[in-house]
Design a protein that fits this description.
This protein is α/β, with parallel strands linked by helices. It folds into two domains: about 5-115, Enolase-like, domain 1 (2-Layer Sandwich); about 130-385, Alpha-Beta Barrel (TIM Barrel). It is about 40% helix and about 20% strand. The protein contains 13 helices and 15 strands. The chain has helices at about 55-60, 75-85, 95-110, 115-120, 160-180, 200-215, 250-260, 275-280, 300-305, 315-320, 325-335, 355-360, 375-385, and strands at about 5-10, 20-25, 30-35, 130-135, 150-155, 195, 220-225, 235, 235-240, 245, 265-270, 285-290, 310-315, 340-345, 365. The strands form three sheets. It has an eight-stranded mixed beta barrel with strand order 4-5-7-11-12-13-14-15, surrounded by four helices. It has a three-stranded antiparallel beta sheet with strand order 1-2-3, covered by helices on one side. Strand 8 and strand 9 form a beta hairpin. Helix 5 crosses helix 6. The two termini are about 25 Å apart. The mean pLDDT is about 95.
Length: about 400
């Protein structure tokens, strides 16, 4: 497959914020991909664009790529050309690069009569689902929980897990109507319910939902949290709902107590994004997940492994800005038995490639929300792949 031309287009993500869609014209036809953006961003992730979306579009359209692309590893030709033209590949912007690379992989897949995920690997693995049911933190407005996401993780195949999470989402609405006088039936950026209740109250509600689901659907569903602690850390952890200040040691004890009390299996970004040392003190009976801590950066992953900070990690390709680097990142995780969770962003598009990457890279989990078209398109795609 050879690229004839590259075009960029400014589109709006699910929050109404600007992002990019990239089109390539090849000798096998036209292919495209779009890339999401985050709201709660780790400070070590690569910048999404050059100074503006428009500048990224201008730069990407100036590329002249003469190489042939026949396999995943051929992306090295693209990245070498970008580095040669713009000194650093991130001067083009991570969103632009990832969208371009996905479009190229789609063209290769078409040429080879394969699915997108098959360009990554001959065999795949269906990840378990992580669904965001109730939200707070930077993803929500008004009086809200300090923690960013309250998650359900069914122990079922994709098709059943989708339905279980949707049932949990409906029950959560009923429970919040009953227990939150300020509840207005609104959802946040990731289509999780917005509530004025504090973290502990929501965790009790999550337990009640879990018990109801398990009783009537005869299945197992687990509870997790994305604390997004960096969003309320400034030398100390400054909680607002209710007001409470915790120092680093107190935060570790508090998180460990929640793991025990609520039998949590998943805790994401429980501490500040620079605190590798205290991450190592968290109770590893749960998945201790690094997102802002790692930002899909290989050097930070290696540091976390060396310091025994985590046993699980979020993978967001546009935090890194190179699918070749993402592949190396995954290989390091597997070698060190680090659980991998491919994740959507708060500002999503209606592109489905996350499912193909999660399946092709053999991720353990995929975190992609519960409802909302931008979330469900990925769930439908994963269900389609898992049945093929």
């Amino acid at each position: 497959m050879q690229i004839k031309s590259i075009k960029g287009e400014k589109i709006l993500d699910s929050r109404g914020k600007e992002t990019i869609k990239v089109f390539i014209e090849s000798d096998f036809g036209r292919f495209s991909a779009s890339c999401p953006s985050g709201t709660s961003k780790g400070k070590h992730e690569k910048k999404a664009f050059a100074d503006t979306v428009e500048e990224s579009i201008e730069k990407i359209e100036s590329l002249e790529i003469n190489n042939h692309f026949n396999k995943f590893e051929d992306l090295i030709y693209l990245e070498s050309e970008i580095a040669k033209k713009f000194k650093l590949i991130n001067n083009l912007g991570a969103n632009a690069i990832i969208a371009l690379e996905i479009a190229i992989l789609r063209a290769i897949a078409f040429q080879k009569k394969k699915e997108l995920w098959q360009v990554i690997s001959d065999t795949g693995k269906t990840p378990l689902l992580v669904g965001n049911c109730i939200g707070g933190g930077a993803h929500s407005k008004g009086t809200k929980p300090d923690f960013q996401e309250f998650l359900f993780i069914p122990k079922e195949n994709v098709e059943k897990a989708i339905e279980i999470n949707k049932r949990a989402h409906k029950i959560a609405k009923r429970e919040l109507e009953d227990k939150d006088e300020q509840f207005e039936e609104l959802t946040n950026y990731e289509n999780a319910w917005q509530t004025s209740l504090p973290d502990n109250r929501i965790l009790f509600i999550m337990q009640e939902i879990k018990q109801e689901i398990e009783k009537f659907l005869h299945t197992k569903i687990r509870i997790g949290l994305d604390v997004a602690a960096s969003s309320f850390f400034n030398k100390t952890y400054n909680y607002k709902n209710p007001e409470k200040i915790r120092n680093k040691e107190e935060q570790v004890r508090y998180i460990n107590s929640l793991i025990e009390k609520f039998n949590l299996v998943y805790i994401e970004d429980a501490l500040d994004e620079e605190d590798f040392e205290n991450f190592s003190k968290l109770n590893k009976k749960a998945m201790i997940v690094g997102d802002d801590l790692i930002c899909t950066q290989i050097d930070r992953l290696k540091k976390a492994i060396k310091m025994k900070s985590i046993n699980a990690v979020i993978v967001k390709p546009n935090q890194n800005g190179s699918l070749l680097q993402v592949k190396k990142f995954i290989e390091i995780c597997k070698k060190n038995k680090i659980i991998t969770i491919f994740s959507h962003r708060s500002g999503e598009t209606q592109d489905s490639w996350l499912a193909d990457l999660a399946y092709g890279f053999k991720a353990d989990f995929m975190k992609s929300g519960i409802i909302g078209e931008e979330r469900e398109v990925k769930l439908r795609r994963l269900k389609e792949i898992s049945k093929s």
